[in-house]
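Researcher: Go.
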Amino acid sequence: MRYNADGSVEYIRNANIMVLNDLHITVTPPEGCRPVYLDDLFHMLEQARSYAVDNKVVETVFTGDLFHRTALPYRELTR
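Model: Structure:
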């Protein structure tokens, strides 16, 4: 089911759904991770976006922890 901007509801059969789990976005790499951890995450998200476009993914669901810490300063995520 998808809600459209005009308020109508559209039922979708055989919809492609992509699930991304436990991204743990952080500027400082967690212990045991490579120094380019954040670059790797953004590269993975770009690959996921490309996959979604190529495979006509209708919905993307993020599960688990999106951020590694409770709060990240906005300036750390905008580069």
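Model: Residues 31 and 47 are 24 Å apart (CA to CA).
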